[in-house]
Amino acid sequence: MQALIVVDMQNGFLRHGNLASEQCLAVLPAVVDEVRAALGAGHHVIFTADTHEHDDAEFQIFPTHCIRGTGEADLVDELASFLGGETVHLVPKRRYSAMFETELEGILHRYAITDVRICGVCTDICVLHTTADLRNRDIAVTVVANATATFEAPEHSAEAVREQSLAHMAGILGATVERSTGAVGS
Ligand SMILES: [Zn+2]
Asked: Which tens digit of pLDDT belongs to each residue from 84-110?
């Protein structure tokens, strides 16, 4: 069984708060297309959602974001509308990897998911760490390059960091990186 994992396409990364990023917002249409295609093909769709407590350790590294119960933790409206479908799942997470102390592993086992497409944000953080944990379990991963993004910040060039991360996922983690012009990697 195949699934699409959509990483952290939330208001707190796209529209509101300390970490909202126009680079991340820009891939929303491509992500919506991915979700429609997956559901149309009968695949499961798993949305992850960064969901923090006020005193989470991650705030020693990043500014406060996506606190449980705030609008920042909600999926953006364009994707929240898909919730409730029989094959649609929402996985709250509190670290970079969506595999860490979440329901994701149980969902993968229950539906015998062996093949994952992954998209969302940020390419170099939660997409990368979730891909690493999927590959540690020998799950095949295809990274949809045109539907992933990361933020622009000083000493964090969005385009350079994104390309480096895609290369790492292909060359080191053994994921397939799918670009609109064709697949790169193994
Ligand atoms: Zn976070």
From this structure: 999 999 999 999 999 999 999 999 999
